[in-house]
Amino acid sequence: MPVRERGLSMYSFLFDAAAGAEGAGGLTSMLPLLGIYAAFFVILYFVLIRPQRKQQKETAKMQNAITNGDWVLLSNGMYGKVVNIINDNLMVEFGTNRSIIIPVRRDQILAAQEPDLTQKTVEEVEKAPEDAIVGNDLAEDQLDAYDQYILEKGNKKNKNGLFGKSKN
Hints:
Elements: H1 3-23, H2 26-64, E1 71-74, E2 79-86, E3 89-94, E4 100-105, E5 109-111, H3 138-141, H4 145-155
Antiparallel strand pairs: 1-2, 1-5, 2-3, 3-4
């Protein structure tokens, strides 16, 4: 059999197999698979896509509602006060000297809130014990023999230094 005829017979075999599978319920055997894919995309939509779109709409609504005099929190963590609005740019005043005014794109605003500048009291921190110096409480520090030797050598006043070298 020539090569050409063998190739055609192979293709015809594949087409016959596909037609036979379709005739024997090929579409009906694919319905459960399509149902699984559809359920996966529905779950994906309600878990990921819909909440994200809802949050984007709320953020855009908040950004469009900003007026002059509002305090804003920018995406870089800085607070500022809006002094002018030009198209999609806000002129935001930073600092207390009222001379730093920077144009900011409207989409860089995270929240319209005033900074909390109240001072909070710091609770008393537990003080370290007074005898926590390394030579006074050897038993508590669990110093080994070498550490004790180094401490004793350092306390002795002799001609040789701590490491046996003569001091000149």
